[in-house]
Design goal:
This protein folds into two domains: 75 residues, Rna Polymerase Sigma Factor, Chain: A; 68 residues, Winged helix-like DNA-binding domain superfamily/Winged helix DNA-binding domain (Arc Repressor Mutant, subunit A), CATH 1.10.10.10. The protein is mainly α. α2 packs across α3. It starts with a helix and ends with a helix.
């Protein structure tokens, strides 16, 4: 199989790869990154592909293994290793401000400042804080992604200024 044929067949799998990547990640942006990483690995390891075998299965295996490796690496990066003699970091108490009298006051104060912001600015900010992605906010509010990003940025800036002394 020539390099041109390989590349053409690989590009023909794009729709399938995107779908499989989304089922693995459940996130559009992460799926796009996974597809791109899979293409890079497939192209750099083209010499390891046997012409008589199934290209789709070979590429899907690359994607699945890449996803698993990335997942394992993320788990390792989030693991805390305490090598101190008395396990200081593991025994450190995790203090939380939840339930303290001043924490509810702070939340009310922040919500009060958020409610002062113009509705057109506030809505994208609230959706972003609720976990929506920029693209989802843009689609839902019928705005461009740039407008959504700038509204969130300026709202955050206004809130930091308003809450600076508190």
């Amino acid at each position: 199989m020539t390099a041109m044929e390989f590349n053409h067949k690989l590009l023909g799998l794009q729709k399938n790869l995107k779908y499989f990547a989304y089922t693995l990640t459940s996130n559009y942006d992460d799926a796009q990154d996974l597809v791109q990483e899979t293409y890079v690995k497939a192209l750099t390891n083209r010499d390891k592909f046997t012409a008589d075998t199934n290209l789709k299965a070979w590429t899907f295996t690359i994607m699945k293994n890449t996803f698993i490796n990335n997942y394992r690496q993320n788990i390792r990066n989030n693991t805390i290793l305490d090598k101190t003699d008395d396990l200081y970091y593991l025994n450190l108490s995790k203090e939380s401000s939840i339930g303290l009298p001043d924490s509810s006051y702070r939340v009310k104060e922040i919500q009060k400042e958020i409610s002062k912001v113009d509705k057109d600015q506030r809505k994208p900010f609230e959706m972003y804080n609720a976990g929506y992605k920029y693209k989802e906010i843009a689609d839902k509010l019928n705005l461009s992604i740039g407008t959504v990003k700038s509204r969130i940025f300026f709202t955050r800036k206004k809130l930091m200024e308003a809450l600076k002394d508190n």
